[in-house]
Specification:
Helix content: 40-55%
Shape: globular
Family: Belongs to the short-chain dehydrogenases/reductases (SDR) family.
Largest sheet: 7 strands, parallel
CATH class: Alpha Beta
Protein name: Short-chain dehydrogenase
Organism: Micromonospora maris
Order of helices and strands: EHEEHEHEHEHHEHHH
Structural class: alpha/beta
Number of domains: 1
CATH architecture: 3-Layer(aba) Sandwich
Radius of gyration: 19 Å
Number of helices: 9
Distance between the termini: 58 Å
Strand content: 5-15%
Keywords: Oxidoreductase
GO cellular component, one term: lipid droplet
Number of strands: 7
């Protein structure tokens, strides 16, 4: 199997690449900042660069001799309250998480159609169950799923498209949020990285392409509730947020000042 993985030098990417390499796949990665100890070949690529992406993807596909599987893993997070006007941080998340994936996928379409290949999208539980104070990430991941749905309709005669929905995994993606005083502690239950890797492999290697794959049993329940009982999940998240405000967990966090003030005003 000939595989291209974006975000290959990050926490998820390195683990996915290493496992595929162990299974005997030919793997090339793309990353903005490749590392000397990456488990596979990783080409430097800024997926926000319209001109650079097609050339680097072409180089990767040439090295592989074709393409059977694209794993769109690259993504970033960060604080972005919905009540504030979008700035550089919002644009950055949308450009990488959504448009970067779009650029890379578009550059791979011909090779994937030729091989009857697959695309695996690393989405997020937040694509269906939004958490407060992280509107850009949730919006980018929900839009990513919409893009995957469109791809499935357009390419489904030849290419399988699967979205994988991890919850929170401990990794540097949460560092900027924690630095802003908006840690996910108390809002999310962390899951092991191994489960995400196993689910990605399941999406890649199953006999028939799966449409949507949560990564844990709890994630499957959350996915079901968010899809079919969204008002209930809204109430659960809102109640959890209120509890964090009461506990003082968001005190001093500038980006949460509006949320804290409104909750305190209703006591």
């Amino acid at each position: 199997m000939r595989v291209l993985v974006t975000g290959a030098s990050g926490t998820f990417g390195r683990a996915i690449c290493a496992r595929l390499d162990e299974l005997g796949a030919q793997v090339v990665g793309l990353d903005l900042a490749p590392r000397a100890d990456d488990p596979v070949r990783v080409l430097a690529c800024d997926i926000t660069d319209d001109d650079a992406v097609p050339a680097v993807v072409r180089e990767a596909i040439d090295q592989l001799g074709g393409l059977d599987l694209l794993i769109n893993n690259a993504g970033i997070g960060g604080p972005a309250p919905a009540e504030l006007a979008p700035g550089a941080e919002v644009r950055r998340q949308l450009d990488i998480n959504l448009l970067g994936t779009w650029r890379v996928t578009a550059a791979c379409v011909d090779a994937l159609v030729a091989s009857g290949g697959r695309i695996v999208m690393l989405s997020s539980r937040m694509a269906v169950m939004q958490l407060p104070l992280a509107a850009a990430y949730g919006a980018s991941k929900r839009a990513l799923v919409a893009y995957a749905d469109a791809l499935r309709l357009e390419l489904g005669t030849h290419v399988g498209v699967t979205c994988v929905y991890p919850s929170a995994v401990r990794s540097p993606i949460h560092d900027s949020t924690a630095a802003a005083g908006l840690s996910l502690e108390g809002m999310s239950q962390y899951e092991p990285l191994d489960g995400v890797v196993r689910t990605v492999l399941r999406a890649a290697l199953s006999r028939r392409p799966r449409r949507d794959l949560p990564t844990t049993r709890r994630g499957a329940v959350e996915f079901f509730l968010a899809r079919h009982l969204p008002a209930l999940t809204d109430r659960i998240v809102a109640r959890t947020l209120a509890g964090r405000v009461r506990s003082g967990a968001l005190q001093g966090a500038e980006l949460a000042a509006g949320v804290v003030a409104r909750h305190e005003a209703t006591r």
